[in-house]
C-alpha cells in the first residue's frame, strides 16, 4: 500500500507544505508559490494550445506596445493577466511589477471572496506580512509562434518598509511602493522559472538550494525530478547572440575567441548553443554548465535583459546552484535597481567559466 501511495513522488505542493510546517514564518510564502504554480499550469496550457486557439501573433492586430517600446503578443497580455490574478487572490502580495506593466501595480483594492452562508464578502490585501512579486510572464514570447521554448520568470521580495506612504497615480507609483519594488537581488526570498518546452518544468529556490519539478499532466502536479541542482564547476558550452560579437566589449570578444580556439584555461574548444529564449538557455546552463549571457554591446550599453525581473531572479538561482552571475565584473545580486525596467549586462553560469571570463575584464584595468 505504501508503494502505491509513493507513486506520486514529492509534489511541489507537498514540498512547500513541508517547508512551511518546519518554518511557520514561511506560511505566506507557501500560499504565494501555490498561486504562481497554479498560474504556470494555466500558462503551460495556453502556450500548448496557442496555435489551435488562435492565441498566436500580436495583440490588438499589432497596436499594443509596452512601456519598453516592444510590441506585445497576445500571449504576453493574457499570461500577464493570469499571473496577476493568481497572485492577487493569494492575499499575500502588495505590489506586482511585470515586464508587461508600465508601472508596478499596487493591490490595494477590496475584492470578494466566498463568505459564510453562501454570501460573498469584501476583503482587502492584508497590509503587513506581504510580499513584492516581480515577473516576466512569458519570456521569449517572440519565439512562441515557431514552437520554441518560452518561460515565466519570477522573483519574490519581502516588503522592506511600511506601505503607508505609497502613492499611486494613473501612470506612476511613488513613495514606499516604489522603494519596496526597487530592491537588490540579495534581498530576494525566492525566485525561479517555469519552462514551457518538451516538458514543463518549475525550477526555484527559497534560498536553500535549487530544486526542479516536472509537470505530470496525468495528475496535474509538478513532481520533484531534479533535487538540489548543482551547476558543474566547468562546462563546455558558451551561449550568446554571436551576431552582436563585433559590438561587444573587447575583453569579452577575447574571452570567446580563447574558448572557441582551445586557448582558454581548460584548453578545450567550447561548443555554441543559443536558443534566444532566456529560460531555456538558463535551464540548459544549470544542468550542463558553461556560460550564458546577454552582454553589453555598442548599441545597448546595458545589454537587453531586465535587472529586476529577469537578471536578478536568475542570478539568485545561479548562485544557489553554485554558479556565478556578473555584468562582466560586477556581481548582479549587489545591484540596486534605479528603475523598474532597467536593463543590465548578464553573464552567468559555471563558477570557473564565469571567473575566467571576468579575468579578461580584470586584465584591462
Ligand atoms: P523578451 O523579454 O522581450 O522576450 O526578450 C528577452 C529575450 C530573452 O529570452 C533572450 O535571452 C533574449 O531576449 C534574446 O534576444 P536576441 O534575440 O537579441 O538574441
Ligand atoms: Mg523577457
UniProtKB/TrEMBL annotation:
Give the GO biological process terms. Answer: fructose 1,6-bisphosphate metabolic process; fructose 6-phosphate metabolic process; fructose metabolic process; gluconeogenesis; sucrose biosynthetic process
- What top-level branch of life does the organism fall under? Eukaryota
Q: In which pathway does it act?
A: Carbohydrate biosynthesis
Q: What is its EC number?
A: 3.1.3.11
Cite the Fructose-1-6-bisphosphatase class I N-terminal domain residue spans from the record: 10-227
User: What residue stretches are annotated with the Fructose-1-6-bisphosphatase class 1 C-terminal domain?
Assistant: 231-361
Q: Name one GO molecular function term.
A: metal ion binding
Q: What cellular component terms from Gene Ontology apply here?
A: cytosol
Cofactor(s) annotated in UniProt: Mg(2+)
Subunit relationships: Homotetramer.
Under which name does UniProt file this protein? fructose-bisphosphatase
Which family is this protein grouped under? Belongs to the FBPase class 1 family.
The UniProt keyword set, sorted, is:
Carbohydrate metabolism, Hydrolase, Magnesium, Metal-binding, Signal
Reactions catalysed, as given in the entry: beta-D-fructose 1,6-bisphosphate + H2O = beta-D-fructose 6-phosphate + phosphate
